[in-house]
Amino acid sequence: MSLHLDATHDPALRSWVASANAPGTDFPIQNLPYGRFRDLSALMAAPKATRVALRQALSAALAQHSPQQARLKDCLLAQTDAEMGLPCAIGDYTDFYTGIHHATTVGKLFRPDNPLLPNYKWVPIGYHGRSSTIVVSGTPLRRPLGQTLPPNAESPSYGPCQRLDYELELGALVGPGNSLGEPVAIAEAEDRLFGMTLLNDWSARDVQAWEYQPLGPFLAKSFGTTLSPWVVTMEALAPYRLPFQRPAGDPLPLSHLDSPANREAGAIDIALEVWLQTAAMRAAGQAAVRLSQSNFRDAYWTLAQLLTHQASNGCKLQPGDLLGTGTQSGPEPGQGGSLLELSDGGKQALTLPNGEQRRFLADGDQVILRAACERPGTARIGFGDCAGTVLPAPG
Ligand code: CA
């Protein structure tokens, strides 16, 4: 578990790179996120000790008064001059369901008397997603076509999705993997995680409602998933760890999903936000508006539990595999991490400051996810934007 704090986390540390010292920047020298000029997969496969050594070397090289400044300053490229790609080749992609407030709210829409199914508090629920349609922030998202059963219709039809939605998630990228047939003990799970990104799990709710039984999400989810380009490392997140707790009366995790370190610091305090800018707002020069806020500290399962659970049957995880956390919604009604929740299943339209209304996404809408960690006595670090704009359906 990455709880090791060292000189790289010192909140007083400043860099000779001026933009790293700007107030409110997502990327101060205490963050040191990785993005891709070249594929990061080789670095991600390295053991934790290598990652920690690299972080310490980078921090020393970029700190004010570093003797390496003269040699390094010509290597820097402005973010605005860099076209970022996905951070690595993503092999397999799993999407979990750790947001208990999301699971409860969405469950109520389908089963008012029994929102959480009996397995939820025992097993981290997940499904295998589609890695071929994961795209980097800034890539437009084409509204999908799909088969749906419209209300009161006797038979389904095929056409553009009418209930397009986003999901506010984080993604954890696997570092060193495990061998086929060999589970990962929870005590070793976090050392096998490289870092975290923001993740938007675009969702076609009308397609989902028709197709999901009995095998779960399929085409409602596989038309696009947007990832932020910067990987915030587990080491950078060390100052923001929190105890992992279950509400009184809830079952404790089974022993293979439990450890003293996971109880002590398995949760992470990451503030999350969703912003929306419609085409009309963009045309009028109006900035994006914030739709909701939540925090990853409210997740029902930790990253260590997700990785341990996924490997518990001997499933092989490899460097660059992606574990999505599931939608992160807060406990309050206005803290839903999707429009499905904020519009109460499409029944209650949201009114935006310019008078436009939304139950689900319209063509031209840009969805922006943001995340940051802040705690007194530490430097604020952020994740950078995870953005995508909806294009009309094909044809
Ligand atoms: Ca999801």
Note the main attributes of this structure.
395 residues; alpha+beta; globular; binds calcium ion; Fumarylacetoacetate hydrolase, domain 2; six-stranded mixed beta sheet
What would you note in describing this structure?
There is one protein chain. The chain has 395 residues and is an alpha+beta fold. The chain has one domain (7-391): Alpha-Beta Complex (Fumarylacetoacetate hydrolase, domain 2), CATH 3.90.850. It is built from 10 helices and 22 strands. The strands form 6 sheets. Strands 1, 2, 3, 8, 9, 11, 12 and 17 form an 8-stranded mixed beta sheet that branches. Strands 4, 15, 16, 20, 21 and 22 form a 6-stranded mixed beta sheet that branches. The chain has a two-stranded antiparallel sheet with strand order 5-6. The chain starts with 40 loop residues before the first helix and ends with a strand. Residues 95, 167, 169, 201, 324, 326-327 line the site of calcium ion (CA).
In helices, the fraction of residues equals 10-25%
- Biggest sheet descriptor: 8 strands, mixed
Let me know the number of strands.
Answer: 22
Q: Could you name the ranges where pLDDT drops below 50 across 5 or more consecutive residues?
A: none
CATH architecture descriptor text: Alpha-Beta Complex
Spatial shape = globular
**Strand pairing plus helix content: what structural class?**
alpha+beta
